[in-house]
Amino acid sequence: QVQLVESGGGLVQAGGSLRLSCAASGRTLTNYAMGWFRQAPGKEREFVTTISGSGRSTDYADSVKGRFTISRNNAKNTVYLQMNSLKPEDTAVYYCAASYSGSIDYAGRGEYEYDYWGQGTQVTVSS
């Protein structure tokens, strides 16, 4: 079992920045791709970004590319999401998720690939 706890959400003005953290316990994350997903009110949960177990592979949704950066520190069992140039449309609950992978360089976009999920952290961007 892997337990994931997100932190770092909050209220920020448009153009501002936030850094989300996702701390894992239960197992080391080296063999897990880690993803961030988000769900805005009235909308389905959507893919934001993912990073492979090695950290060598990353992928971003077009809507956040160039503004968000995912990173990980396997020694600390923690994944980060640096969010810059935030927009009101980034307002959502952000979820961290872990996907066991046979390849430490693979990171997928599909929710079905992720085995463990955090409880989510609210990010609100005011205009």
What does this protein structure show overall?
- By secondary structure, the chain is mostly beta strands.
- The strands form 2 sheets. Strands 2, 4, 5, 6, 9, 10 and 11 form a 7-stranded mixed β-sheet that branches.
- A hairpin with a 4-residue loop joins strand 7 and strand 8.
- The N and C termini lie far apart (40 Å).
What is the 3D form? Answer: globular
Oligomer: single chain
Percent helix = under 10%
- Radius of gyration, in angstroms, nearest whole number: 13 Å
Order of helices and strands: EEEEEEEEEEE
Portion in strands: over 45%
Can you tag this structure with a few keywords?
127 residues; mainly beta; 11 strands
What is this structure's SSE topology?
Layout lengths: L2 E5 L2 E4 L4 E8 L6 E8 L6 E6 L6 E3 L7 E6 L4 E6 L8 E9 L15 E2 L3 E6 L1
Parallel strand pairs: 2-11
Antiparallel strand pairs: 1-3, 3-8, 4-5, 4-9, 5-6, 7-8, 9-10, 9-11
